[in-house]
Amino acid sequence: MFRPKLPTMPQSTGQVTPPAVVIEPTTITPGTPAPPSAPAVPASAPVPSRPTVQLTPGTTLALVGGGSAVILVVGAVLVSMLLAVAVTAASVAVCAVVLRSLLASDAKRR
Fold this sequence. Notes:
By secondary structure, the chain is mainly α. The protein has one helix spanning 57-109.
C-alpha cells in the first residue's frame, strides 16, 4: 500500500545500440607546477580604446523628450492607481455608514 508504483517502460521496436563513448583512464602526477602564463599583448602595444558616444543636439533633445515622456506616463499611472484606491476607500466608507444606519434603525424598531 505504501510502496510507489513505478510505471513500466514500453518495449522498443527497433534495435538499440549502446552509445559509442570510450573512457580512457589518465594518470595524475601531483606536484608539477604549471608554467607561468605570459601576457598575450606586449606591453608596447597601445590599448584599444572603447568607442566614444557623441551626443549631438538632436540626440540630446530626443533623450530629454523620451525621458520626460516616460516620467509623465509613470506619473499618470501612479496617480490613477492612487485615485482608484481613494474611490474604493470612499465607497467602502459609504457602505459602512449605510450598514450601520440600517442596523441601528433595525435595533430601534424591536
